Amino acid sequence: MKPLNSYDKKGILAEEVFVEIFEQEDAIRRAQMLLSFQDRAKELGVKGQFDTMVKAFEKAEKETQQKQRQSQTLIENWTNFTGKYDSMKCGSWLAADNGIRTFNKDYSNEVIVCYHPIMPIGRMRNLETGEEQIRLAYKRNHRWTEIAVPKDIISSASKIVSLSKLGVAVTSENAKLLVKYLSDVENMNDDEIPIQRSSAKLGWIGDGFLPYDTEIIFDGDMAFGQVYESIREHGSWQEWLEHVKALRRTGRLEIKFSLAASFASILVNRLGALPFIVDLWGETEGGKSVSMMLAASIWANPDNNQYIGDFKTTDTQLEIRADLLNHLPLMLDDTSKTSSRIRDNFEGVVYDLCSGKGKSRSNKELGIRRENRWKNTILTNGERPLTSYVSQGGAINRILEIECGEKVYQDPQYTAELLKKNYGFAGKRFVQVIKKMGAEELREIQQKLQKELFSVDKMQKQSIAMSVLLLADRIATDHIFYDGEYISVQEAESVLVDKSEVSEHERCYHYLLDKINMNRQRFDAAATTEQWGIISEGYAIMYPQAVKELCRQGDYSYKAFLNWADKQGIIQTDGKNQTKLKKIDGKPVRCVFLQLNEFQDKDGFEPTDVSQEELPFK
Protein backbone atom coordinates (compact mmCIF):
# COMPACT_ATOMS: atom_id res chain seq x y z
CA MET A 1 0.00 0.00 0.00
CA LYS A 2 1.25 3.50 -0.91
CA PRO A 3 1.85 6.12 1.78
CA LEU A 4 -1.35 7.94 2.72
CA ASN A 5 0.00 11.38 1.82
CA SER A 6 0.57 10.19 -1.77
CA TYR A 7 -3.21 9.81 -2.37
CA ASP A 8 -5.04 12.68 -4.04
CA LYS A 9 -8.82 13.22 -4.27
CA LYS A 10 -9.19 10.89 -7.23
CA GLY A 11 -6.79 8.22 -5.97
CA ILE A 12 -8.36 7.82 -2.50
CA LEU A 13 -11.75 7.09 -4.08
CA ALA A 14 -10.36 4.47 -6.48
CA GLU A 15 -11.91 0.94 -6.30
CA GLU A 16 -8.61 -0.81 -5.57
CA VAL A 17 -8.34 1.14 -2.27
CA PHE A 18 -11.62 -0.32 -0.98
CA VAL A 19 -10.84 -3.79 -2.30
CA GLU A 20 -7.59 -3.78 -0.37
CA ILE A 21 -9.35 -2.63 2.83
CA PHE A 22 -12.18 -5.22 2.65
CA GLU A 23 -9.81 -8.07 1.78
CA GLN A 24 -8.39 -7.74 5.26
CA GLU A 25 -9.67 -10.75 7.29
CA ASP A 26 -8.36 -9.33 10.56
CA ALA A 27 -11.16 -7.09 11.85
CA ILE A 28 -8.75 -4.91 13.88
CA ARG A 29 -6.42 -4.30 10.92
CA ARG A 30 -9.41 -3.44 8.72
CA ALA A 31 -10.72 -0.91 11.28
CA GLN A 32 -7.29 0.73 11.55
CA MET A 33 -7.03 1.07 7.76
CA LEU A 34 -10.55 2.55 7.50
CA LEU A 35 -9.78 5.18 10.16
CA SER A 36 -6.51 6.15 8.49
CA PHE A 37 -8.09 6.52 5.04
CA GLN A 38 -11.07 8.43 6.51
CA ASP A 39 -8.64 10.94 8.07
CA ARG A 40 -6.83 11.39 4.70
CA ALA A 41 -10.20 11.73 2.88
CA LYS A 42 -11.18 14.45 5.37
CA GLU A 43 -7.91 16.32 4.68
CA LEU A 44 -8.70 16.13 0.97
CA GLY A 45 -12.33 17.26 1.53
CA VAL A 46 -13.91 14.02 0.16
CA LYS A 47 -14.84 12.22 3.40
CA GLY A 48 -18.56 12.11 2.45
CA GLN A 49 -17.80 10.42 -0.86
CA PHE A 50 -15.36 8.05 0.89
CA ASP A 51 -18.02 6.97 3.48
CA THR A 52 -20.53 6.35 0.69
CA MET A 53 -18.09 3.98 -0.99
CA VAL A 54 -17.49 2.17 2.33
CA LYS A 55 -21.23 1.56 2.76
CA ALA A 56 -21.49 0.27 -0.80
CA PHE A 57 -18.66 -2.24 -0.25
CA GLU A 58 -20.14 -3.37 3.11
CA LYS A 59 -23.48 -4.07 1.39
CA ALA A 60 -21.78 -5.98 -1.43
CA GLU A 61 -19.81 -8.03 1.12
CA LYS A 62 -22.99 -8.92 3.02
CA GLU A 63 -24.76 -10.09 -0.15
CA THR A 64 -21.78 -12.21 -1.08
CA GLN A 65 -21.82 -13.85 2.35
CA GLN A 66 -25.56 -14.59 2.02
CA LYS A 67 -25.01 -16.27 -1.33
CA GLN A 68 -22.23 -18.34 0.15
CA ARG A 69 -24.45 -19.46 3.03
CA GLN A 70 -27.29 -20.32 0.67
CA SER A 71 -24.89 -22.31 -1.47
CA GLN A 72 -23.54 -24.05 1.62
CA THR A 73 -27.09 -24.90 2.73
CA LEU A 74 -27.86 -26.46 -0.63
CA ILE A 75 -24.72 -28.58 -0.40
CA GLU A 76 -25.47 -29.70 3.20
CA ASN A 77 -29.15 -30.58 2.65
CA TRP A 78 -28.75 -34.04 4.18
CA THR A 79 -28.77 -34.92 7.85
CA ASN A 80 -25.31 -35.60 9.13
CA PHE A 81 -25.90 -37.58 12.33
CA THR A 82 -23.48 -40.25 13.52
CA GLY A 83 -25.09 -43.54 14.48
CA LYS A 84 -27.28 -46.26 13.02
CA TYR A 85 -29.69 -44.12 10.97
CA ASP A 86 -29.23 -43.30 7.29
CA SER A 87 -28.92 -39.69 6.18
CA MET A 88 -32.12 -38.00 5.06
CA LYS A 89 -32.88 -34.95 2.92
CA CYS A 90 -33.45 -31.92 5.10
CA GLY A 91 -33.75 -29.00 2.67
CA SER A 92 -32.56 -25.70 4.10
CA TRP A 93 -31.98 -27.11 7.58
CA LEU A 94 -28.49 -27.80 8.96
CA ALA A 95 -28.71 -31.08 10.85
CA ALA A 96 -25.59 -32.44 12.54
CA ASP A 97 -24.53 -33.96 15.85
CA ASN A 98 -24.42 -30.50 17.44
CA GLY A 99 -28.14 -30.03 16.77
CA ILE A 100 -30.55 -28.63 14.20
CA ARG A 101 -30.00 -25.09 12.91
CA THR A 102 -31.33 -22.70 10.31
CA PHE A 103 -30.80 -19.03 9.38
CA ASN A 104 -32.97 -16.02 10.03
CA LYS A 105 -34.79 -14.35 7.14
CA ASP A 106 -31.83 -12.35 5.87
CA TYR A 107 -29.35 -15.17 6.50
CA SER A 108 -27.38 -12.92 8.80
CA ASN A 109 -27.54 -15.20 11.87
CA GLU A 110 -27.95 -18.88 12.69
CA VAL A 111 -31.04 -19.91 14.67
CA ILE A 112 -31.05 -23.00 16.90
CA VAL A 113 -34.02 -25.29 16.16
CA CYS A 114 -33.07 -28.13 18.52
CA TYR A 115 -29.93 -28.69 20.59
CA HIS A 116 -29.64 -32.37 19.65
CA PRO A 117 -30.24 -34.66 16.65
CA ILE A 118 -33.85 -35.64 15.99
CA MET A 119 -35.50 -37.17 12.93
CA PRO A 120 -38.61 -39.12 11.84
CA ILE A 121 -37.78 -42.78 11.12
CA GLY A 122 -41.16 -44.42 10.55
CA ARG A 123 -44.94 -44.11 10.35
CA MET A 124 -47.60 -46.39 11.76
CA ARG A 125 -51.20 -46.60 10.56
CA ASN A 126 -53.63 -48.08 13.11
CA LEU A 127 -55.84 -50.87 11.79
CA GLU A 128 -58.74 -50.04 14.09
CA THR A 129 -58.92 -46.27 13.62
CA GLY A 130 -56.88 -45.47 10.50
CA GLU A 131 -55.00 -42.84 12.54
CA GLU A 132 -51.26 -42.43 12.08
CA GLN A 133 -48.43 -42.26 14.57
CA ILE A 134 -44.91 -41.13 13.81
CA ARG A 135 -41.78 -42.81 15.12
CA LEU A 136 -39.06 -40.36 16.10
CA ALA A 137 -35.43 -41.01 16.96
CA TYR A 138 -33.48 -38.45 18.99
CA LYS A 139 -30.01 -38.44 20.49
CA ARG A 140 -29.24 -37.22 23.99
CA ASN A 141 -26.05 -37.92 25.97
CA HIS A 142 -24.63 -39.87 23.02
CA ARG A 143 -27.55 -42.33 23.06
CA TRP A 144 -30.34 -42.72 20.52
CA THR A 145 -33.90 -43.16 21.81
CA GLU A 146 -36.99 -44.09 19.78
CA ILE A 147 -40.54 -43.01 20.61
CA ALA A 148 -43.90 -43.28 18.85
CA VAL A 149 -46.32 -40.38 19.16
CA PRO A 150 -49.64 -39.45 17.48
CA LYS A 151 -49.14 -37.51 14.27
CA ASP A 152 -51.01 -34.47 15.58
CA ILE A 153 -48.40 -34.04 18.34
CA ILE A 154 -45.64 -33.07 15.89
CA SER A 155 -48.04 -31.06 13.72
CA SER A 156 -48.83 -28.45 16.35
CA ALA A 157 -46.49 -26.04 18.12
CA SER A 158 -48.71 -26.10 21.21
CA LYS A 159 -48.70 -29.91 21.36
CA ILE A 160 -45.11 -30.71 20.45
CA VAL A 161 -43.87 -29.14 23.70
CA SER A 162 -45.35 -32.20 25.47
CA LEU A 163 -42.36 -34.16 24.10
CA SER A 164 -40.16 -32.28 26.56
CA LYS A 165 -41.23 -34.69 29.30
CA LEU A 166 -39.75 -37.51 27.20
CA GLY A 167 -36.40 -35.75 26.92
CA VAL A 168 -36.77 -33.80 23.67
CA ALA A 169 -35.31 -30.28 23.95
CA VAL A 170 -38.39 -28.35 22.88
CA THR A 171 -39.92 -25.26 24.43
CA SER A 172 -42.51 -22.71 23.39
CA GLU A 173 -39.65 -20.69 21.86
CA ASN A 174 -38.41 -23.27 19.34
CA ALA A 175 -41.63 -25.30 18.95
CA LYS A 176 -42.72 -23.75 15.63
CA LEU A 177 -39.33 -24.30 14.01
CA LEU A 178 -39.13 -27.90 15.22
CA VAL A 179 -42.60 -28.61 13.81
CA LYS A 180 -41.50 -27.17 10.45
CA TYR A 181 -38.22 -29.10 10.44
CA LEU A 182 -39.89 -32.46 11.18
CA SER A 183 -42.58 -31.78 8.59
CA ASP A 184 -40.00 -30.94 5.93
CA VAL A 185 -37.86 -34.00 6.63
CA GLU A 186 -40.90 -36.31 6.64
CA ASN A 187 -42.27 -34.94 3.36
CA MET A 188 -38.90 -34.78 1.60
CA ASN A 189 -38.26 -38.43 2.47
CA ASP A 190 -41.80 -39.74 2.02
CA ASP A 191 -40.70 -42.69 -0.13
CA GLU A 192 -37.84 -43.63 2.19
CA ILE A 193 -39.70 -43.49 5.53
CA PRO A 194 -41.39 -46.90 5.97
CA ILE A 195 -45.07 -47.10 6.87
CA GLN A 196 -46.25 -50.06 8.91
CA ARG A 197 -49.65 -51.33 9.94
CA SER A 198 -50.14 -51.11 13.68
CA SER A 199 -52.65 -52.04 16.34
CA ALA A 200 -53.39 -50.98 19.90
CA LYS A 201 -54.87 -54.43 20.60
CA LEU A 202 -53.10 -57.72 21.30
CA GLY A 203 -54.23 -61.11 20.06
CA TRP A 204 -55.58 -62.38 16.76
CA ILE A 205 -55.21 -60.14 13.71
CA GLY A 206 -56.28 -62.22 10.74
CA ASP A 207 -54.14 -65.34 10.84
CA GLY A 208 -51.42 -63.60 12.82
CA PHE A 209 -51.14 -63.08 16.54
CA LEU A 210 -49.70 -59.91 18.03
CA PRO A 211 -47.06 -59.88 19.47
CA TYR A 212 -45.75 -63.25 18.26
CA ASP A 213 -45.84 -63.85 14.53
CA THR A 214 -47.12 -60.83 12.67
CA GLU A 215 -45.54 -57.86 10.89
CA ILE A 216 -48.10 -55.61 12.54
CA ILE A 217 -46.54 -53.57 15.32
CA PHE A 218 -47.99 -52.45 18.63
CA ASP A 219 -48.88 -48.78 19.14
CA GLY A 220 -51.02 -49.00 22.27
CA ASP A 221 -51.48 -46.62 25.16
CA MET A 222 -48.09 -45.73 26.65
CA ALA A 223 -49.69 -45.87 30.12
CA PHE A 224 -49.93 -49.66 29.71
CA GLY A 225 -46.49 -50.03 28.18
CA GLN A 226 -45.35 -52.30 31.02
CA VAL A 227 -48.15 -54.76 30.20
CA TYR A 228 -46.97 -55.08 26.61
CA GLU A 229 -43.31 -55.25 27.63
CA SER A 230 -44.08 -58.04 30.10
CA ILE A 231 -45.31 -60.36 27.32
CA ARG A 232 -42.07 -62.05 26.35
CA GLU A 233 -40.04 -65.21 26.82
CA HIS A 234 -37.62 -65.24 29.73
CA GLY A 235 -35.61 -67.89 31.50
CA SER A 236 -35.86 -71.61 30.75
CA TRP A 237 -38.77 -73.29 28.96
CA GLN A 238 -37.77 -76.72 30.26
CA GLU A 239 -37.55 -75.56 33.88
CA TRP A 240 -41.01 -73.99 33.67
CA LEU A 241 -42.48 -77.05 31.93
CA GLU A 242 -41.10 -79.63 34.36
CA HIS A 243 -42.27 -77.69 37.41
CA VAL A 244 -45.77 -77.08 36.04
CA LYS A 245 -46.12 -80.75 35.06
CA ALA A 246 -45.21 -81.68 38.63
CA LEU A 247 -47.90 -79.29 39.91
CA ARG A 248 -50.47 -80.84 37.58
CA ARG A 249 -49.65 -84.31 38.87
CA THR A 250 -50.87 -83.30 42.32
CA GLY A 251 -54.39 -83.43 40.85
CA ARG A 252 -55.43 -80.09 42.34
CA LEU A 253 -58.31 -78.61 40.34
CA GLU A 254 -57.27 -75.09 41.34
CA ILE A 255 -54.04 -75.53 39.35
CA LYS A 256 -55.63 -77.17 36.32
CA PHE A 257 -58.49 -74.67 36.10
CA SER A 258 -56.12 -71.68 36.40
CA LEU A 259 -53.97 -72.97 33.55
CA ALA A 260 -56.95 -73.93 31.37
CA ALA A 261 -58.66 -70.57 31.93
CA SER A 262 -55.52 -68.73 30.81
CA PHE A 263 -55.07 -70.87 27.69
CA ALA A 264 -58.81 -70.62 26.90
CA SER A 265 -58.63 -66.86 26.47
CA ILE A 266 -57.36 -67.00 22.89
CA LEU A 267 -60.11 -69.49 21.97
CA VAL A 268 -63.02 -67.19 22.91
CA ASN A 269 -62.80 -65.10 19.76
CA ARG A 270 -61.87 -68.08 17.57
CA LEU A 271 -65.09 -69.85 18.63
CA GLY A 272 -67.32 -66.78 18.55
CA ALA A 273 -68.05 -67.13 22.28
CA LEU A 274 -68.57 -64.37 24.86
CA PRO A 275 -66.08 -63.38 27.57
CA PHE A 276 -66.43 -65.20 30.87
CA ILE A 277 -64.88 -64.99 34.32
CA VAL A 278 -63.03 -67.72 36.20
CA ASP A 279 -62.96 -66.80 39.88
CA LEU A 280 -60.72 -68.58 42.40
CA TRP A 281 -61.85 -67.84 45.92
CA GLY A 282 -61.02 -69.03 49.42
CA GLU A 283 -59.30 -68.22 52.68
CA THR A 284 -55.98 -66.39 52.96
CA GLU A 285 -52.82 -68.45 52.35
CA GLY A 286 -54.74 -70.87 50.16
CA GLY A 287 -52.64 -70.31 47.04
CA LYS A 288 -54.92 -67.97 45.08
CA SER A 289 -52.23 -65.45 44.18
CA VAL A 290 -49.73 -68.15 43.20
CA SER A 291 -52.38 -69.75 40.98
CA MET A 292 -52.86 -66.43 39.21
CA MET A 293 -49.11 -66.08 38.80
CA LEU A 294 -49.08 -69.57 37.30
CA ALA A 295 -51.79 -68.58 34.82
CA ALA A 296 -49.96 -65.35 33.92
CA SER A 297 -46.62 -67.10 33.40
CA ILE A 298 -48.06 -68.80 30.31
CA TRP A 299 -47.89 -65.47 28.50
CA ALA A 300 -45.93 -62.94 30.48
CA ASN A 301 -43.96 -61.85 33.53
CA PRO A 302 -46.12 -62.78 36.55
CA ASP A 303 -44.29 -60.50 38.98
CA ASN A 304 -46.01 -57.59 40.73
CA ASN A 305 -47.01 -54.57 38.62
CA GLN A 306 -46.24 -56.36 35.37
CA TYR A 307 -49.02 -58.31 33.62
CA ILE A 308 -51.43 -58.90 36.52
CA GLY A 309 -53.70 -55.98 37.43
CA ASP A 310 -56.18 -55.35 40.22
CA PHE A 311 -59.45 -53.60 41.03
CA LYS A 312 -57.74 -50.56 42.59
CA THR A 313 -58.51 -48.47 39.53
CA THR A 314 -61.46 -46.98 37.63
CA ASP A 315 -63.95 -48.74 35.39
CA THR A 316 -62.61 -46.72 32.44
CA GLN A 317 -59.05 -47.92 33.09
CA LEU A 318 -60.29 -51.50 33.34
CA GLU A 319 -61.98 -51.11 29.95
CA ILE A 320 -58.78 -49.75 28.40
CA ARG A 321 -56.77 -52.62 29.87
CA ALA A 322 -59.26 -55.21 28.61
CA ASP A 323 -59.30 -53.56 25.17
CA LEU A 324 -55.50 -53.63 25.05
CA LEU A 325 -55.27 -57.32 26.00
CA ASN A 326 -58.17 -58.05 23.64
CA HIS A 327 -57.79 -61.85 23.28
CA LEU A 328 -55.21 -62.40 26.02
CA PRO A 329 -56.54 -63.06 29.54
CA LEU A 330 -57.36 -60.13 31.81
CA MET A 331 -56.10 -60.95 35.30
CA LEU A 332 -57.29 -59.00 38.35
CA ASP A 333 -55.94 -59.87 41.77
CA ASP A 334 -57.97 -59.68 45.01
CA THR A 335 -61.59 -58.59 44.55
CA SER A 336 -61.67 -57.21 48.10
CA LYS A 337 -59.21 -54.43 47.21
CA THR A 338 -61.43 -52.28 45.02
CA SER A 339 -61.39 -48.54 44.51
CA SER A 340 -64.39 -46.61 45.80
CA ARG A 341 -65.54 -45.88 42.23
CA ILE A 342 -65.69 -49.58 41.38
CA ARG A 343 -67.07 -50.63 44.78
CA ASP A 344 -70.10 -48.40 44.25
CA ASN A 345 -70.86 -50.09 40.92
CA PHE A 346 -69.16 -53.46 41.25
CA GLU A 347 -72.03 -55.37 39.68
CA GLY A 348 -72.04 -53.06 36.66
CA VAL A 349 -68.29 -53.44 36.19
CA VAL A 350 -68.53 -57.24 36.31
CA TYR A 351 -71.42 -57.20 33.86
CA ASP A 352 -69.51 -54.92 31.47
CA LEU A 353 -66.42 -57.14 31.61
CA CYS A 354 -68.56 -60.14 30.69
CA SER A 355 -70.28 -58.25 27.88
CA GLY A 356 -66.97 -57.64 26.11
CA LYS A 357 -67.81 -54.04 25.28
CA GLY A 358 -67.12 -50.71 26.95
CA LYS A 359 -69.28 -47.61 27.14
CA SER A 360 -69.56 -45.24 24.18
CA ARG A 361 -67.82 -41.95 24.88
CA SER A 362 -67.24 -38.74 22.95
CA ASN A 363 -63.89 -37.03 22.52
CA LYS A 364 -62.89 -33.36 22.83
CA GLU A 365 -63.90 -32.75 19.22
CA LEU A 366 -67.40 -34.09 20.06
CA GLY A 367 -66.88 -37.14 17.89
CA ILE A 368 -67.50 -40.70 19.05
CA ARG A 369 -64.42 -42.53 20.29
CA ARG A 370 -63.65 -46.03 19.15
CA GLU A 371 -65.51 -48.43 21.43
CA ASN A 372 -63.39 -50.60 23.67
CA ARG A 373 -64.03 -54.27 22.84
CA TRP A 374 -62.51 -57.56 23.93
CA LYS A 375 -63.13 -61.30 23.73
CA ASN A 376 -61.15 -63.14 26.33
CA THR A 377 -61.28 -64.81 29.71
CA ILE A 378 -61.10 -62.78 32.91
CA LEU A 379 -59.33 -64.36 35.88
CA THR A 380 -60.08 -63.02 39.36
CA ASN A 381 -59.50 -64.12 42.93
CA GLY A 382 -60.53 -63.11 46.43
CA GLU A 383 -61.55 -64.36 49.83
CA ARG A 384 -65.24 -64.19 48.87
CA PRO A 385 -66.80 -65.63 45.71
CA LEU A 386 -67.33 -63.04 43.01
CA THR A 387 -71.05 -63.84 42.84
CA SER A 388 -71.43 -62.47 46.36
CA TYR A 389 -70.81 -59.00 44.91
CA VAL A 390 -73.40 -59.29 42.12
CA SER A 391 -77.05 -60.23 41.76
CA GLN A 392 -77.85 -59.94 38.05
CA GLY A 393 -78.30 -63.36 36.50
CA GLY A 394 -76.81 -62.15 33.22
CA ALA A 395 -73.49 -61.60 34.96
CA ILE A 396 -73.61 -64.59 37.30
CA ASN A 397 -74.12 -67.17 34.59
CA ARG A 398 -70.84 -66.12 32.96
CA ILE A 399 -68.83 -66.65 36.14
CA LEU A 400 -67.17 -70.01 36.84
CA GLU A 401 -66.21 -70.24 40.50
CA ILE A 402 -63.66 -72.61 41.98
CA GLU A 403 -63.16 -72.73 45.72
CA CYS A 404 -59.48 -72.75 46.68
CA GLY A 405 -58.74 -75.28 49.39
CA GLU A 406 -55.82 -75.51 51.77
CA LYS A 407 -52.21 -76.10 50.74
CA VAL A 408 -52.69 -76.08 47.00
CA TYR A 409 -48.89 -75.76 46.76
CA GLN A 410 -46.45 -77.62 48.96
CA ASP A 411 -43.97 -74.75 48.68
CA PRO A 412 -45.79 -71.70 47.29
CA GLN A 413 -42.79 -69.40 47.73
CA TYR A 414 -40.56 -71.68 45.65
CA THR A 415 -43.20 -71.88 42.91
CA ALA A 416 -43.66 -68.10 42.87
CA GLU A 417 -39.92 -67.43 42.58
CA LEU A 418 -39.50 -70.02 39.82
CA LEU A 419 -42.36 -68.49 37.82
CA LYS A 420 -40.82 -65.01 38.12
CA LYS A 421 -37.62 -66.32 36.54
CA ASN A 422 -39.18 -68.50 33.82
CA TYR A 423 -42.20 -67.41 31.81
CA GLY A 424 -43.73 -66.58 28.43
CA PHE A 425 -42.97 -69.83 26.55
CA ALA A 426 -46.20 -71.83 26.69
CA GLY A 427 -48.44 -69.11 25.25
CA LYS A 428 -46.47 -68.79 22.02
CA ARG A 429 -46.49 -72.57 21.54
CA PHE A 430 -50.22 -72.73 22.24
CA VAL A 431 -50.91 -70.07 19.59
CA GLN A 432 -48.98 -72.11 17.02
CA VAL A 433 -51.06 -75.21 17.84
CA ILE A 434 -54.34 -73.28 17.52
CA LYS A 435 -53.30 -71.86 14.14
CA LYS A 436 -52.65 -75.36 12.80
CA MET A 437 -55.98 -76.72 14.04
CA GLY A 438 -58.24 -74.14 12.40
CA ALA A 439 -61.57 -72.71 13.55
CA GLU A 440 -63.78 -75.55 12.24
CA GLU A 441 -61.91 -78.29 14.06
CA LEU A 442 -61.92 -76.24 17.27
CA ARG A 443 -65.65 -75.57 17.02
CA GLU A 444 -66.43 -79.23 16.40
CA ILE A 445 -64.54 -80.36 19.54
CA GLN A 446 -66.06 -77.55 21.62
CA GLN A 447 -69.63 -78.43 20.62
CA LYS A 448 -69.02 -82.07 21.46
CA LEU A 449 -67.79 -81.07 24.93
CA GLN A 450 -70.76 -78.75 25.34
CA LYS A 451 -73.18 -81.62 24.65
CA GLU A 452 -71.43 -83.72 27.30
CA LEU A 453 -71.85 -80.90 29.80
CA PHE A 454 -75.45 -80.06 28.91
CA SER A 455 -77.98 -80.51 31.69
CA VAL A 456 -81.52 -79.17 32.03
CA ASP A 457 -80.66 -78.09 35.57
CA LYS A 458 -77.49 -76.16 34.65
CA MET A 459 -77.13 -72.76 33.03
CA GLN A 460 -76.45 -73.01 29.30
CA LYS A 461 -74.13 -70.01 29.16
CA GLN A 462 -72.01 -71.53 31.90
CA SER A 463 -71.91 -74.78 29.96
CA ILE A 464 -70.65 -72.92 26.88
CA ALA A 465 -67.93 -71.17 28.90
CA MET A 466 -66.92 -74.42 30.54
CA SER A 467 -66.74 -76.21 27.18
CA VAL A 468 -64.28 -73.55 25.94
CA LEU A 469 -62.20 -74.03 29.10
CA LEU A 470 -62.25 -77.84 28.69
CA LEU A 471 -61.23 -77.51 25.05
CA ALA A 472 -58.22 -75.42 26.08
CA ASP A 473 -57.36 -78.00 28.73
CA ARG A 474 -57.51 -80.86 26.20
CA ILE A 475 -55.32 -79.05 23.67
CA ALA A 476 -52.76 -77.95 26.28
CA THR A 477 -52.61 -81.45 27.76
CA ASP A 478 -52.12 -83.09 24.35
CA HIS A 479 -49.74 -80.55 22.77
CA ILE A 480 -47.98 -78.70 25.58
CA PHE A 481 -47.74 -80.98 28.62
CA TYR A 482 -48.20 -84.50 27.13
CA ASP A 483 -49.13 -85.75 30.59
CA GLY A 484 -52.73 -86.97 30.30
CA GLU A 485 -53.77 -84.79 33.29
CA TYR A 486 -57.15 -83.71 31.87
CA ILE A 487 -59.96 -81.97 33.70
CA SER A 488 -62.77 -84.54 33.57
CA VAL A 489 -66.32 -83.70 32.50
CA GLN A 490 -67.51 -84.71 35.97
CA GLU A 491 -65.07 -82.29 37.62
CA ALA A 492 -66.22 -79.56 35.26
CA GLU A 493 -69.89 -80.24 36.01
CA SER A 494 -69.26 -79.81 39.72
CA VAL A 495 -68.32 -76.17 39.07
CA LEU A 496 -71.51 -75.36 37.14
CA VAL A 497 -74.37 -73.92 39.19
CA ASP A 498 -78.04 -74.88 39.05
CA LYS A 499 -80.48 -72.60 37.26
CA SER A 500 -82.31 -71.98 40.50
CA GLU A 501 -79.12 -70.52 42.00
CA VAL A 502 -78.76 -68.10 39.11
CA SER A 503 -82.41 -67.12 38.73
CA GLU A 504 -82.79 -63.51 39.82
CA HIS A 505 -86.40 -64.10 40.90
CA GLU A 506 -85.43 -67.19 42.89
CA ARG A 507 -82.79 -65.17 44.71
CA CYS A 508 -85.28 -62.36 45.27
CA TYR A 509 -87.68 -64.84 46.89
CA HIS A 510 -85.02 -66.15 49.28
CA TYR A 511 -83.90 -62.59 49.98
CA LEU A 512 -87.46 -61.66 51.02
CA LEU A 513 -87.77 -64.79 53.20
CA ASP A 514 -84.50 -63.90 54.93
CA LYS A 515 -85.68 -60.33 55.54
CA ILE A 516 -88.98 -61.57 56.95
CA ASN A 517 -87.25 -64.01 59.32
CA MET A 518 -84.79 -61.31 60.43
CA ASN A 519 -87.60 -58.82 61.14
CA ARG A 520 -90.36 -60.86 62.85
CA GLN A 521 -91.12 -57.91 65.14
CA ARG A 522 -92.47 -56.04 62.12
CA PHE A 523 -95.33 -58.54 61.96
CA ASP A 524 -96.19 -58.20 65.67
CA ALA A 525 -99.02 -55.71 66.21
CA ALA A 526 -97.86 -55.17 69.80
CA ALA A 527 -94.39 -54.02 68.68
CA THR A 528 -93.62 -50.32 68.33
CA THR A 529 -91.57 -50.71 65.14
CA GLU A 530 -92.86 -49.98 61.64
CA GLN A 531 -95.20 -52.81 60.59
CA TRP A 532 -94.88 -54.74 57.32
CA GLY A 533 -98.05 -56.81 57.75
CA ILE A 534 -99.02 -60.04 59.52
CA ILE A 535 -98.03 -63.70 59.35
CA SER A 536 -100.93 -66.15 59.09
CA GLU A 537 -101.36 -69.77 57.98
CA GLY A 538 -97.91 -70.10 56.41
CA TYR A 539 -98.02 -66.77 54.55
CA ALA A 540 -96.41 -63.39 55.11
CA ILE A 541 -99.31 -61.05 54.32
CA MET A 542 -97.47 -57.80 53.58
CA TYR A 543 -98.32 -54.29 52.58
CA PRO A 544 -97.31 -53.84 48.89
CA GLN A 545 -95.22 -50.79 49.77
CA ALA A 546 -93.16 -52.86 52.21
CA VAL A 547 -92.45 -55.47 49.52
CA LYS A 548 -91.60 -52.74 46.99
CA GLU A 549 -89.16 -51.15 49.42
CA LEU A 550 -87.45 -54.47 50.18
CA CYS A 551 -87.11 -55.24 46.45
CA ARG A 552 -85.62 -51.81 45.87
CA GLN A 553 -83.07 -52.33 48.64
CA GLY A 554 -82.06 -55.67 47.15
CA ASP A 555 -81.96 -54.22 43.61
CA TYR A 556 -84.77 -56.49 42.38
CA SER A 557 -87.79 -55.68 40.23
CA TYR A 558 -91.01 -55.75 42.27
CA LYS A 559 -93.28 -56.21 39.26
CA ALA A 560 -91.10 -58.86 37.59
CA PHE A 561 -90.85 -60.79 40.87
CA LEU A 562 -94.63 -60.86 41.39
CA ASN A 563 -95.15 -62.09 37.81
CA TRP A 564 -92.70 -64.93 38.43
CA ALA A 565 -94.10 -65.70 41.91
CA ASP A 566 -97.62 -65.89 40.48
CA LYS A 567 -96.52 -68.43 37.87
CA GLN A 568 -94.69 -70.43 40.55
CA GLY A 569 -97.77 -70.41 42.83
CA ILE A 570 -95.96 -68.95 45.83
CA ILE A 571 -98.33 -65.98 46.16
CA GLN A 572 -102.11 -65.89 46.46
CA THR A 573 -104.09 -63.71 44.07
CA ASP A 574 -107.73 -62.79 43.56
CA GLY A 575 -107.57 -63.77 39.89
CA LYS A 576 -107.31 -60.23 38.57
CA ASN A 577 -104.56 -58.79 40.71
CA GLN A 578 -101.38 -60.26 42.18
CA THR A 579 -102.61 -59.10 45.60
CA LYS A 580 -105.62 -59.98 47.80
CA LEU A 581 -107.78 -58.16 50.31
CA LYS A 582 -107.09 -58.90 53.97
CA LYS A 583 -108.64 -57.42 57.12
CA ILE A 584 -105.94 -55.95 59.32
CA ASP A 585 -107.12 -54.18 62.49
CA GLY A 586 -110.67 -54.52 61.19
CA LYS A 587 -109.94 -52.72 57.90
CA PRO A 588 -109.75 -54.43 54.48
CA VAL A 589 -106.28 -53.84 52.98
CA ARG A 590 -104.89 -55.11 49.68
CA CYS A 591 -101.77 -57.16 50.48
CA VAL A 592 -99.14 -59.43 48.95
CA PHE A 593 -99.67 -63.01 50.20
CA LEU A 594 -96.14 -64.52 50.11
CA GLN A 595 -95.76 -68.21 50.90
CA LEU A 596 -93.22 -68.79 53.67
CA ASN A 597 -92.47 -72.45 52.86
CA GLU A 598 -91.04 -72.78 49.36
CA PHE A 599 -91.59 -76.53 49.34
CA GLN A 600 -95.34 -76.24 49.88
CA ASP A 601 -97.52 -76.76 46.81
CA LYS A 602 -100.60 -74.70 45.91
CA ASP A 603 -102.83 -76.91 48.08
CA GLY A 604 -100.57 -76.53 51.14
CA PHE A 605 -98.98 -79.98 50.96
CA GLU A 606 -95.25 -80.68 51.21
CA PRO A 607 -93.48 -83.47 49.30
CA THR A 608 -92.12 -86.32 51.40
CA ASP A 609 -89.09 -88.50 50.62
CA VAL A 610 -90.58 -91.96 51.27
CA SER A 611 -87.16 -93.56 51.10
CA GLN A 612 -86.29 -91.93 54.42
CA GLU A 613 -89.10 -93.34 56.59
CA GLU A 614 -91.36 -96.41 56.79
CA LEU A 615 -94.96 -96.10 55.71
CA PRO A 616 -97.55 -96.89 58.42
CA PHE A 617 -99.07 -99.55 56.21
CA LYS A 618 -97.96 -101.83 53.38
Automatic annotation (TrEMBL):
InterPro entries: Cch_HTH (IPR040538), DUF927 (IPR009270). Residues 504-597 form the Cch helix turn helix domain. Transmembrane segments: none annotated. Residues 104-371 form the DUF927 domain. Signal peptide: none annotated. This is DUF927 domain-containing protein.
